[in-house]
Amino acid sequence: MNETLLACIKQVQEREFLFEIKQLKTGGCVPKKSKLRSLCPFLDQKGILREDNVPPAKWLLGKIIKKFPGPDNVTRVVSIKCKTGEYRRPVSKICILTK
């Protein structure tokens, strides 16, 4: 997408879903009452809301580059490097592939 279109999308999303975006930026969850909840949204590298409900054939392949362990030393979030950028995702939303 070109930069102008991305800027417009981001501006509209911030106007309509400011609270949800703030929650996702701080590592929180989308509130249960939010219209976005059923879409399992996440923020991409550029801060654009994306939906998580894509078929497995369209999943991005990537490499885990950083783990974020919690206070109990259990990793629940990782950074993944893909061809389209770097994403921070919960471990419950990734699928590990073996050789």
Task: Report the helical percentage.
Answer: 10-25%
Question: What characteristic shape results from the CA principal axes?
Answer: globular
List SSEs in N-to-C order.
Answer: HHEEEEE
**How many domains make up the 3D coordinates?**
2
Count up the helices: 2
Find the structural class using helix and strand composition: alpha+beta
**What is the CA-based Rg, rounded?**
14 Å
Sheet of most strands: 3 strands, antiparallel
Mean pLDDT metric: 81
Could you tell me how far the N terminus lies from the C terminus, measured between alpha carbons in angstroms? 33 Å
Strand content: 25-35%
Q: How do the strands of the widest beta sheet line up side by side?
A: 3-4-5
What ranges have pLDDT less than 50 throughout 5 or more consecutive residues?
Answer: none
| Overall strand count | 5
Please characterize this protein's 3D structure.
It is a single chain. The protein is an alpha+beta fold and 99 residues long. It contains 2 helices and 5 strands. The strands form 2 sheets. The protein has a 3-stranded antiparallel sheet, with no helix packed on it. A two-stranded antiparallel sheet has the order 1-2. A hairpin with a 5-residue loop joins strand 1 and strand 2. The chain is globular and about 40 Å long. The relative contact order is 0.13.
